[in-house]
Amino acid sequence: MTDKNELAQIGVVGLAVMGSNLARNFARNGNTVAVYNRSPEKTHALIEAHGEEGNFVPSETIEDFVASLERPRKAIIMVKAGKATDAVIDQLAEAMDEGDVIIDGGNALFTDTIRREKDVAARGKHFVGAGISGGEEGALNGPAIMPGGPKESWETLGPILESIAANVDGTPCVTHIGPDGAGHFVKMVHNGIEYADMQVIGEAYQLLRYGAGMAPAEIAEVFREWNSGDLDSYLIEITAEVLAQKDPETGAPLVDVIVDAAGQKGTGRWTAINGLELGVPITGIAESVFARALSSSTAQRSAAQEGQLPAGTIKELDVDKAEFIEDVRRALYAAKLIAYSQGFDEIKAGSEEFGWDVDPRDLATIWRGGCIIRAKFLDRIRAAYDNNADLPALILDPYFKGELEDLIDPWRRVVVAATQLGLPAPVFASSLSYYDSLRAERLPAALIQGQRDFFGAHTFKRTDKPGTFHIEWSGNRSLTQTD
Ligand code: NBP
Prior knowledge:
Its EC number is 1.1.1.44. The chain is an alpha/beta fold. The protein has helices at 17-28, 40-50, 62-67, 83-95, 110-122, 135-141, 151-164, 182-211, 216-226, 234-244, 254-257, 267-278, 283-295, 298-305, 321-354, 360-366, 378-387, 398-421, 426-439, 445-456, and strands spanning 10-13, 33-36, 56-58, 74-77, 101-104, 126-133, 144-147, 167-168, 171-172, 469-471, 479-481. The chain is globular.
C-alpha cells in the first residue's frame, strides 16, 4: 500500500538488495516507510513487487523524500559504502532540519563514521553509523544492528530499530553501542571474527577431507552432528548445507566444482589493520585474511603445485578415524574460542583508544541472533563478562578455562597431524602458538631486546631492579643505566 499523504516514521535511501529488504522489514513490522533511490526504477520495482507488504511512501527526489518523513526525521542510507555515502549524507543534511537523524547502515570504515559524525553535527543534525549484519536474509527477516552515534538519537531510533531486529529469547538484537564510530567499529570486528570462524571451519573440513579421506557428504553429516553441541552456530549449519550440496550440472559435490580462491570485501582486512595499529594480537583474524589472500594468489599457487616445492616425507595418518574427527571438533572449538577472545580484546582496546565505553556483554547479547556469527556459545561469553566485566581475556574466564582443559590435547594432536600430513591449518596452528605464548613464563622477547640494544642501543629493562639499561656492545661490554 502506498500513501503520499501519510508521514513516514523512517526512510530508506538506496534500494538495492540490502536497502529494499530493510525497507520491507520496516513496513512488515507496522512502520510507514519512506523510500528513495537515485535511479527511480528500483523504487518502482520495490513498490510493484512488495508494495502490499505494508505502508510505503515512495519519492523520486530527495526533497520529496525528506518532506515525507515525520519529525524528528530519521533516514537510513543503504548505498555503496564510500563516496556514494558522502554524496547522500550531503544531500540529506542539506534538505533536513536541526535535530533530524541521518543513519548510515552501510559497511563504512569507522574512521569515516567519526569524520562524518563531526561534519553532520556541525550542520545541526545527528549522525548514526550503524553496523548491520545478516546479509540480505537478515535485512529482510531480522538483522543484528549495531548503532553508534549520540545517545539521544538512540532515544528516538531505538524502538524503530528494535521493531525490525532479530530477537532471541525476547531480547532484540540491537542496542546503542557507543558514540560516533563505535557501531561501525564493532561491526568491523564482528566481520573479522566471521573471517576467522569461517577459516577454522575450512581447516577442519580440509583435515577431514584430505587427512581422514572423507567425502564431502560424509563431512556434511559430521558438521550436522557438531551443530547440536558446543559448536551450534549459523556458520556450522550452513557448512553442512554447502558440503551436502551437489552441483546441479555435473552431480559432483558442489564444493569440488567451486574455484578455491576466497573473495573478500575488506572488513576483515580493516580489522587486521586496526589490530596492528592498536597493537592487539588478533592472530586468528589476521591469518584468516592472509589465508584468503593466499588462496587467491593463483599464479604462485600453480607454480608451487607443479612439483616445485618439496612436500617432505608425508606420513599416513596413524589414528582411529572416529577419534580424529573428535579431535578436529575440539581443535575447531579451541581455535574459534581464541578468535573470539582476540576479537573482544580488539574491541576493548578500540573502546579505550576512542573513549567509547563499549560493554562486551551487549555484543555477546546482540550477536546471538540475526548476524553471521550467531552461535550458542555467545551465551557463555555473555555469562563470562557478567561474572567479571574486567576479564583480562575471554579465555581466562573459569568456564572457558575448563573447556580448554578438554580441548588442549586434541588441539595439539590436530596441529601435529596437519603438520605431518603437510596440510595447511594456519589458524589452528597460529592460535595454538598464541595460546602457548600467553601461557609462557619466559618469551624470547628478552633476546629480542638484547638484539635491539646490540644494534641500535635501544636499551632494555632488567628483571631484578627498576631502570633502563644498555651494554657497551662495541666497547668493554660494561652495563650503564640510562634512566
Ligand atoms: P550496493 O553496495 O550494491 O550499492 C548500490 C546502491 O547504491 C544503489 O541503490 C545505488 O543507486 C546506490 N548508489 C550508488 Br552505487 N552511488 C550512489 C550515489 N552517488 N548516490 C546515491 N545512490 C548511489 O548495495 P547493497 O549490496 O544493497 O549494500 C548496501 C550497503 O549495505 C553497502 O554499504 C554494503 O556494504 C552494506 N552491506 C551489504 C551486505 C550484503 O550482504 N550485501 C551486508 C551488510 C552490509 P542506483 O540504483 O541509482 O545505482
